[in-house]
Amino acid sequence: MKRTVIFYLLLILNISAFCQIGGSGVYEFLNLPISARVAALGGNLIAVKDNDLNVSLTNPSLLTDSMNNNVALSFINYFGGIKYGYAAYAKHFNKVGNFSVGVNYVDYGKFIRADDIGNTDGYFYSQDMSFNIAYERSVIDSNLTVGATVKTVYSHMDTYTSSGTAVDIGATYVRPKSNFAIAYVIKNMGQEWKSYVPGYKEKLPFEMQLGISKKPKHVPMRISVVYENLQKWDLTYVDPAIVTVDPLTGATITKNKYKAFGDKLMRHIVVGGEFIITKNIFLRFGYNYRVRKELMIDEKRGADGFTFGFGFRVYKFHLSYGRAMYHLAGASNTISLSFDINSFCSSRFVSTK
């Protein structure tokens, strides 16, 4: 079958909202914020180590013993009828470490099949899917942990299919007394084994990240800062529509070097804050400078790049909601649910002593 206009549109659809450095490789859906908590905190969270299975997908070294028999589920209502989500389960093994298994998927919906000149021939569907196995254990002492996630990826676009393997490696160091954590993650190392087009294999969205989190003493709030894309300094996008030459003098319009440096630096930074109202209620907010710079419209600047959400515990369930503003055209909504299977198991054999 001839490559169609629809095929190329799907390749564009397959990139995440962080689109200006997306599209340079395959399986960009792996970078989508997968949980409501992560979405509400700017779209990335790699250095908060608590009993939350939802965040372990961003950094496998965040798995803990307390996640034993925990289940996490998430659903995201994205743009243009696109929906995606995930499910994960964690298990602890004494003297071995912590494991989790999970699956995340993206359903792009129904499309009209058309050739290069617009002749239609029915409909087709498109999906991406990843099966994940993660492992974590302590190194030296319980404050330093390392982990890895192996992701088997499958992508289907009409008659085009692709499969590959991606690996994440993470390390986290925690200082409990000072409520401080620092983490380093290498994401999406691997290869596309079967390409959409035979003989034309694409690169995976490789990335290195560094993150810190801190909860000040006596302050019910935790701050998270993530520095993304350590492997590449300049993430700016040159828009051909922007005027770079003075129409009167013909001289090149140059940016202030300090502003240019600050702009390049901030495109790496994701900031999030979490207010701990009570042990069962959390309010969250975040800001992603790169998303705002890449997707906002200068003539009508909205809340692009800002995120917010909340989390609360009801009975034995932890529910979270996250909303991320990407563009005037709309925002994404994420709902996550997690629970501990152990909490539903009553003890039938109770000592009578």
Tell me what the structure shows:
This protein has a single domain (5-318, 326-338), classed as Porin, CATH 2.40.160. 9% of the residues lie in helices and 48% in strands. It is built from four helices and 14 strands. It has a 14-stranded antiparallel beta barrel. The chain is mostly beta strands and 353 residues long. Mean pLDDT is 86; it is low at 1-20 and 347-353.
Average pLDDT taken over every residue: 86
How many beta-strand elements? Answer: 14
The geometry reads as globular
Question: Strand content of the residues, in percent?
Answer: over 45%
Describe the main β-sheet briefly. 14 strands, antiparallel, barrel
Alpha carbon gyration radius: 22 Å
Oligomer classification: single chain
Structural class: mainly beta
> Order of strands across the biggest sheet?
1-2-3-4-5-6-7-8-9-10-11-12-13-14
Features:
353 residues; mainly beta; Porin; 14-stranded antiparallel beta barrel; 14 strands; globular; disordered C terminus
Question: Would you kindly provide a brief summary of this structure?
Answer:
This protein has 353 residues and is mainly beta. The chain has helices at 5-13, 36-40, 257-266, 289-295, and strands at residues 70-77, 83-93, 97-114, 120-139, 141-157, 160-175, 180-194, 207-214, 221-227, 269-278, 281-288, 306-314, 317-327, 330-340.
